[in-house]
Amino acid sequence: MSVTDKAVLERLAGVISPQGVPLPQTGTLSEISITDGKVFFSISVDATEASAWEGTRIKAENAVRELAGVKTVLAVLTAERKQGAAANAPPPRQVQRMSGAGGQPPPIGRFTGSGSLPGIGAVIAVASGKGGVGKSTTSVNLALGLRDLGLRVGVLDADIYGPSVPRLFGISEKPQVNNAKKLMPIWRFGIAVMSIGFLVEDRTALIWRGPMISTAITQLLRDVEWGRLDVLVIDMPPGTGDIQLTLSQQAPLKGAVIVSTPQDLALIDARRGVAMFNRINVPVLGVIENMSYFRCPACGTRADIFGHGGARREAERLAVPFLGEVPLHASIRELSDAGTPIVEAEPAGEHAAIYRAIATEVRDQLRAKALVA
């Protein structure tokens, strides 16, 4: 029996919202996506009301799950920016399941979930203190470099502000669901891929805070059939605030890679990124200087547009490894936009060699900790 939007809405009509009316009457529901018995939808509320709506989200999932023909349900709680709302509004109070003793936030520390992910040797984060430094492009090409070293690799796109991994891998389809009602990653170029972008519309402006992030990311970590992987690379959201701390605590991270550009402003943010991972006891595997220099393809002249060597000096100052320099080059951008990253598109090229050298440094550190073979 095929599942219809009408049937789903009828089930959701039995879920009473915090407003005291049936959920479909609240104006918070997104369009309902149904593919082969897999139902996806989001509930968009004001960020300050997220805690109050978490129970409604759970009830909505349970209600639709009981519908004949439904294989799996994923309801994501999001928050849409209201007209005139302050961009830096404080996050809502964490719900009780995210709290420690006495309702206080949990202490900063390692993974606070239910342990390591079965079948995955090491989970590493690729992070940046600020946006616009090429973190996602680096994540994808690093993963491909690890693949070329003979490792079985997955990528989880957790960049809630702008999930770009689907575009970088050229993926447009939705994930499938197995008999255990777990999402199956989409395989591309020998990499297992899952993205927050598979669950939200790419033209919708959303704010994600506290409990909403925890719900979505935990589901992507725990409700995906990753199988056996040597390394799972998480493309983190940019920044070093509450969102990044929450995400870092939800994932059993074994290491972090910091991406920066050479200029002073980016290095200040990279410094904060290193400090954040030190605070939560996640070892920093190293710093990458992206857009390190530009070499004119016509004349071969080199220009240090954003300065040069700043990330290396900062890594030395912070006593963390420096992993390498990636140049600013049109082909990296063009191939990324086309959905075929440069390590895949030009495997014999100099830029692919740079990413593989970085991947080798990361692999060797994980191997030294007996996390990969």
Largest sheet: 9 strands, mixed
In round numbers, the mean pLDDT is 78
Secondary-structure class: alpha/beta
Which residues sit in consecutive blocks of at least 5 with pLDDT less than 50? Answer: 80-115
**Spatial gap, N to C terminus:** 46 Å
Q: How big a fraction of the residues is strand?
A: 15-25%
Cα-atom Rg, whole angstroms?
21 Å
Q: In one word, what is the shape?
A: elongated
Helix content: 25-40%
Succession of helices and strands: HEEHEEHEHEEHEHEHEEHEHHH
H/I helix tally: 11
Compute the number of strand runs: 12
Structural notes for this entry:
Strands 4, 5, 6, 7, 8, 9, 10, 11 and 12 form a 9-stranded mixed beta sheet that branches. Helix 7 (264-279) links the parallel strand 9 (253-260) and strand 10. This protein is of the alpha/beta class. Helix 7 (264-279) packs parallel to helix 8. It contains 11 helices and 12 strands. It is 32% helix and 20% strand.
